[in-house]
Amino acid sequence: MRCVYLDNAATSRHKPNSVIEAVNNYLKNIGCSPGRGGYECSLKAGRIVLETRLAVAEFFNVPNPEQVIFTHNITHSLNYAIKGLLKKGDHVVTTSMEHNSVVRPLRSLEKRGIIGVDFISCDDTGMLNPEDVSRAIRDDTRMIVITHASNVAGTLMPVREVAQIAQKHNLFFVLDTAQTAGVYDIDFQELNLDVLAFTGHKSLMGPPGTGGFAISKRAAREMVPLIEGGTGSISDREYQPDFLPDRFESGTMNTPGLAGLKAGIDFIKEVGLNEIRGHELALAKKLIEGLEQIKGVRIYGPRNINLQTPTISITVEGFDTGELSFVLDNEYGIMTRSGLHCAPLAHRTIGSFPEGTLRFSIGYFNTEEEIDYTLECMERIVGR
Amino acid sequence: MRCVYLDNAATSRHKPNSVIEAVNNYLKNIGCSPGRGGYECSLKAGRIVLETRLAVAEFFNVPNPEQVIFTHNITHSLNYAIKGLLKKGDHVVTTSMEHNSVVRPLRSLEKRGIIGVDFISCDDTGMLNPEDVSRAIRDDTRMIVITHASNVAGTLMPVREVAQIAQKHNLFFVLDTAQTAGVYDIDFQELNLDVLAFTGHKSLMGPPGTGGFAISKRAAREMVPLIEGGTGSISDREYQPDFLPDRFESGTMNTPGLAGLKAGIDFIKEVGLNEIRGHELALAKKLIEGLEQIKGVRIYGPRNINLQTPTISITVEGFDTGELSFVLDNEYGIMTRSGLHCAPLAHRTIGSFPEGTLRFSIGYFNTEEEIDYTLECMERIVGR
């Protein structure tokens, strides 16, 4: 049977060979803990971490590589930002299109009486009106946290406008780039970001178990580290170091994963962001146009590749999305994701709660022919 | 040049081939995100995580696999235990031989006025007197947290006695098994543990970026999750689920790493804990006895393989340990770790602060011949 992977919003698949080789090379030929011993091999491992840090800093235009922190995944990064920066009495502005990695930490702090939160309602295509953000700012507002693009409907958020609002009111600005890093240009300095949270294993092409965040100097001064412990630095002290990146990185890192992440970023640089985005969006356009021709299909989100990522959510009249997803996989080898995608608020916003949607998410390795095949199969299932 | 790896207390090297193959197999042939979609391949990835959970539960005799939580590394596990369980006004008893992964979170909570801590002084071999633990218990004591063995001097702690004290006073008992899991028998139920923190990449033979903890039901009920977000479960809810393991696992896991960890545990089961421990301790005995013959060498710790792990710290009269470590690597290809090993309190305890020690740490892949060679080289360097 054919095998068409359309779940790239969950993780990119498969990784470039160079990524798999980099992981393998670390495990086979290096295998030491980085930078905590003076011997040659441990310095080699330390160099891998440093090179990955430099690559991430360059990729997002972060002024200094030490402002790049590595974490287990982007959920950890967002928790560090939210729980590490917010204090009792703070108010936060966010959107109704957020993933649970933002919603749950915020709801948790709110429930414990620590913060107040406003979830700005987006329209039913998932679009945020920046004026609504402006209107929600209060005297005690201290942070704006938004996703760069919805993981459900693909909707791109007006980040530039929101960045200006954050800057005008001198607020921390936290951006969740889970769905965009590796496809769209993201400039840490231009957006005046305080925290740019990224995942390594989606469009950055790295392995799972990688991610992190870039942090502004002012946010770094205020952020309380959620995790403390051995850093290999100032080992004579019983307190966490106060310098970057050590302040926010404790314990042994996922060095093989970081070796893979570096190779992933190299791959993207070699192909070029424009080429990647152009390819993915062309396929998304084809898929949207094809789905629009199929009777009973409802497409959520902007339905316009200038306003969205190549992630497309649908429902089909008379079909259960879970069943549809199962048939696509089981009978045709097409892998999609159905349900609520860890984003209940987003589904409420676009009107697909609690049933959820069937989500197609396109990646760089998908082909035009795969989209044709997917459309054919959809016709066959829905038409029968 | 020869290559003798004696830094196994930092990470085991190299991993068994089956571990590298398991990581590779996931990246090449699976590559999906686990269990969050209904398609076959994502279920396969979910099965990998489940099988690893089952393997860890069986290995440590944890009653239910859902009581096994995976984290980025053991430092994260210890932070979850300490920061997730302790509340304002609590008192904690720990030892002077702890790693900074325990010391720093405790010092941080203490500094913020949240908890009180007593660091029980161990003797200059690193040995803990359980009666001192008993004496330190106060009415407001809520937790005992100790390392199973020192990462500096190898000293094994009297865990059974401490377990009884914890049980008698109805305290949370948290054990750091970074230096022992995969070499010594550790029985979660027999020790009546509340949190058994483990690392995946040391003697459990898994890749870096793996670790976790086993948690008792009573501790799970009280532990506040430090990280919250998408769990792939009850996605209709804006709050963290309250069931295990999801309550403490958010975001995409290091699935390739966990595939490797499963293979590592399988490797240990195949060889047998007794065989592994016997081999390592025989080499440690040889190394200790050999070092005792070299003029000017001072060996720290128990110097008795019944009372310690195969980790041996030394200083040499007239030599800087950093320089010694460098010469061992540079001229003879012997990899050791010098300095304070992220454990300043432990070095104070054994009398090697602030200079630190040179640490040899033996693993299963070391050979008798390598120990002979190391002793020869030490003779040559120190004697010249």
3D architecture notes:
Two copies of one chain form a homodimer. The two termini of chain A are 21 Å apart. Chain A has two domains: 4-14 and 272-383, Aspartate Aminotransferase, domain 1; 17-270, Aspartate Aminotransferase, domain 2. In chain A, 40% of the residues lie in helices and 15% in strands. The model of chain A has no long low-confidence stretch (mean pLDDT 97). Chain A is of the alpha/beta class and 384 residues long. Chain A is built from twelve helices and 13 strands. Chain A has a seven-stranded mixed β-sheet with strand order 2-8-7-6-5-3-4, sandwiched between helices. In chain A, strands 9-10-13-12 form a four-stranded antiparallel β-sheet, covered by helices on one side. A two-stranded parallel ribbon of chain A has the order 1-11. Chains A and B meet through helix 1, helix 2, helix 3, helix 4 and helix 8 of A and helix 1, helix 2, helix 3, helix 4 and helix 8 of B.
Give a nutshell description of this structure.
The structure is a homodimer of 384-residue chains. The first copy, chain A, has 384 residues and is α/β, with parallel strands linked by helices.
